[in-house]
Amino acid sequence: MSPANSQTKTPLLDALRDRTNHPHAPFYAPGHKRGQGISQPLIDLFGATVFRSDLPELPELDNLFNPEGAIAEAQDLAAAAFGAHSTRFLANGSTCGIIAAILATCGPGDKIILPRNIHSSAISGLILSGAIPIFVSPEYNPDWDIANSITPEATASALEQHPDAKAVMIVYPTYHGVCGNLRAIAQITHQYNIPLLVDEAHGAHFNFHPNLPEPALSAGADLTVQSIHKTIGAMTQASMLHVKGDRIDIQKLNRALQLVQSTSPSYLLLASLDAARQQIALHGKELMAQTLQLAEKARSRISLIPGLSVLEPLDTPGFAALDRTRLTVKVSDLGITGFAADEILHSQLGVTAELPMLQHLTFIISLGNTDSDIENLVKACTFLEGRRKNEEERTKKEDFSPPPLPPSPIPPLSPPLLSPRQAFFFPAETVPADKAVDRLSAELICAYPPGIPVLMPGEIITPAAVDYLQQVLAAGGKITGCSDRNLQTLKVVRQ
Fold this sequence. Notes:
By secondary structure, the protein is of the alpha+beta class. It has helices at residues 11-20, 40-46, 49-52, 70-82, 93-105, 120-129, 152-161, 182-190, 216-219, 228-231, 250-260, 267-302, 338-349, 371-394, 420-425, 463-474, and strands at residues 86-90, 111-115, 132-136, 140-141, 146-147, 167-171, 178-179, 196-199, 223-226, 239-243, 309-310, 321-322, 326-330, 355-356, 360-364, 428-432, 445-448, 452-455, 478-480, 489-493.
């Protein structure tokens, strides 16, 4: 039976179940010995069975770095389900997949073209590989304060200026579900006979319903990384890397993955990938139809609430399609920031968004959501509008933030004077933030989520970048990567 015709099978999950139920004396790691040494509070929270299944690379469970048995079969089944030629399971999240993709295609001094709104994991890949980033600014929508995709035209221009680039990497979809014209970008990239790498962390479900955007592999991607845990039923940190075509050196990719994956991968995570693949392969169309139906119910009802608006497909550059299971609601017309709205919804109403930003909130609607969840979301959004009315009547502003600042896109990165790798290893010093302007950053600083770099090692620190970070902090957002969480000081390359 070929993998394509055997999606009912769960070889890795079955192997783990067999070993879990096999009585024997364990003289191997982990130290809790199949749960026998786990503390009672953990057993009370998780139950005992999960710890009996927390096993290492026993012979029956195969080896992630040299798979010949259950893992190899599970990965083959995943490749068939997701339309890949080969698939690798990732137990260190999509982060390790993005890093490995760069390591497998770029060496020290090699150029890679990538968008300004790339995830911070790609910068880690640049630091480890020594590659030189050629940044392309994505299209920006000022009405929503959202960065879309880069365009085919911008990709073509970057390749014309840097025909020696070794790869192109793009984000598809963005955190807000925006998809660019990936098919056109793939065609342009392949004219230079280099691979198109795709951060498809938020698009693992695309292959399983015709009303979702086109999957990256179908559109021409050579390699794509998907967070199966984000939109499908795997455990957090469980991801996959898929390859299609012959532009990726598989041996180099395997070596790269050995650098960034744990030598003691969690079989709980790996087995969850096997089970999630079976579920989505067998029932994906039905599950995604239900998910889309829930999303449309939320979208249509919230769009009718005064003061709120919902992101819809826009006829703007960098916006070719929208993942309609991703719901972005603008709250700024209520005179409140997305950060403040998120706090109210989370702490008072029991509704938690995926991503708050200055003007809006983004919600992930997936196969795990229910009608009850949608009802609670709609009620919470209605509550926000009702609070606005009450506040206006009482002319009080308690619990409400000042109106959001004017839309401010993430400032463009200036050309780095040092490669991210060089800057990472250079001596650094800490200076006041206002004294750091025009110096070279020694830190990778992001507004998180979504983890998009605002400053990266080797880049000139501009007033716009510092202002943007301070604006995010003032509005209630979070900054990661900065040694001073209050942004009073910054680390810079020592002169």
